Each structure stands twice: as C-alpha cells, then as structure tokens.
Amino acid sequence: MFKWFVRIAVACAALVAALLGLVALIDTRVGDIPSEAPAYRVTHIAAAHRPDGLDLHLWYPASAGQITLIGQNALFYGFHARRDAVGDGISHPLVLLSHGSGGNAERLGWIGSALASKGIIVAAVNHPGTTSGDSQPSRTVMPWERTEDLSTILDYLQADAPQGMVPDMNRVGALGFSLGGASVLLSAGARLSKDDFIQYCAANAGQDDCGWLAEGGVDFSQIDAPKYERDNRDQRIKAVVAIDPALTRAMRKHSLTRLPPSLVINLGSDGEIPLAMQADGLAAVNPAIEYRTVPGARHFSFLARCSLLGVVMIALAGDDNICSDRGLRDRGEIQAELVQMIGTFLTDRL
C-alpha cells in the first residue's frame, strides 16, 4: 500500500512539475526593460454623477523615475512606465482614452504608454457599469454616463493636474474603442436617436450588441430618450479617434457635421467588419472625418496582447476568445501600425 502511495505521489508531483513547466513556456515573457518610458499613475477624483468617484489613469511624459513593468500577468502583456513619477513640467496636448464595454483602462496601457512616449498626456477611467467586473446591459444603454466621465476628467485636469503635469487645454483630443469609440464621438458632438437604435436592433435581433442587450433583459422601449438623445458635446475636444465605434447606426447624420477633425478606423477589411461596428458611412457625412481600415485584424486586435496561456484559458471559458488571432496578422504588428496611424493623426491636429 505504501509503495502505491509513493508512486501516486511521485506521479502527481511530476504532473504538477510538467504543468508548471508548460505555464513557464507559454505565459507572458518579461523581456528587457527599455531605456526610455513615460510615467504612469492612478489617482482618485471626485465626480458629481458618480457617488464613489472615479479612478483616473494617467500616462504622461517624464524623464526621471524607475522604469517598471505594469499590468502584466500570466494571460496578458503589460506595459513599461515610470510609476508615479513627476511629470516633466512641459506643456503637452491631452488625449482622453475610453475603453470598450467590459474593458478597462489598464488593458489599454499599450496605446496609452505609446502615445505618452510621443509627448501626449493620456487620461482614462474605468467607466462604472460598463467596465471589467461591472458590465451591465442596463447601464450600456446609458451613454450619457460615459460622456460625463470624460468631461469630469477634463474639469479635473484643467483645475488641478498632478505635479509636473501641464496639459494644454487648447489641444485636447479623445480616443475610444468600441463603446468607447461611441463615447468620444458623442463627447465631440455626435447625437443619438432612440428610434433609430430600436429600428436597427429590430432588423438585427439577436446579433452583436443588440443580442447581448436583449439577453441581458434590456427593454429598448424603456431607454430614457431625453438623456439618450441629449447633446453631450464638450467643445474642449478638438480631435477624435474612434476605433470600431459602437452605436453608429443610431447616430443622427446632421449631428456628425459638428464633429471636429476625426479619424475613424475599422479593424478588418471591407466585407469582414460586423454591422454593429461598420463606420464607413460616417465619412460620407462630414469631410473632416477620415475613414481607414486595418486588414488582417479584427475587433479584439485592439486589446492587450495575450500569452499562449491566455489564448487557451479564455477559449476554455467558452466566451468570445478575445485572445485568439488565428488567421490574422500578429497582434503586435497590428498595434504598432495603429500607434503610428493614431499618433500621427493626433500630433498633426493638436
């Protein structure tokens, strides 16, 4: 009996060792620490419309402070930054960053840190009700909460920016992904139509955003029309980048003519982009809107790069595999292209 116990124990130990070895082979790699990196900090700010306030994530130029790896785990790659470093004291353009439904600010650190390295202050929050661990269909149809978040960020940085951080409030842009793409467009002047949204979902029942909202028990007829359709424009925003923006089918065409210079990007080629994110029609309304596509990509290509372990674990979870890049270009290559495209647009217009 004792011999069998020993054999079983040895076999279990070997299995555990093999699993640990496998994880070591396929999880995220730390890599070399770069010689240059921007700063990053998180600070809590008050918000009149949010009883618990907001955690503000900031990426900004700095030359002093230790460079560390932030936000990395076994599933997702992080980014390098000087945590809590003092800013360089030089005036820089400011760009708001808005995550998608169920996303969060830290997972967009790859683009936040890249833009900060180009001399831009980047500011983001986790939008309560539509963020990781707190993603509610009922709150997803309350886009005015998100636009209020973005204006609150601007109010705070205009009045009381952290030490060494000097945002130029005459050079403010906004960058958003998915529902965040809709958020920045609304903050820049686009307006929604409840009736148009209901008609769109009636024609596309069970698909993409409409299906998820319906499964979550959202009664579209009960959407608060005055708030849903209100003007959320913050005229401090002078340029916009929207990647795979949501709600384009519900945006009033006449309101799109008010948008400042804007870059709208769809991830994928024509014919491959889901209807919920198709945004080519926006450019036809306003010549200030540039439209581009990124072939070999898909919606989730904008999210943080994943390890092989992340691909496997998230696939086993049974949901949309936000980590899978099968049949696509390398995610790192796509994101490098996006950094160049977005960075050039923002620096040219701010």
TrEMBL record:
- Could you tell me the superkingdom of the organism this chain comes from? Bacteria
Protein name in UniProt: Dienelactone hydrolase
What's the source species for this entry?
Paragemmobacter aquarius
User: What Pfam families would the database entry show?
Assistant: PAF-AH_p_II
Coiled-coil region(s): none
Is Transport there in the keyword field?
A: no
As one GO molecular function, the record gives:
carboxylic ester hydrolase activity
Keywords annotated in UniProt: Hydrolase
What InterPro entries does its record include? AB_hydrolase_fold (IPR029058), FrsA_esterase (IPR050261), UCP031982_abhydr (IPR016986)
Report the leader peptide range: none
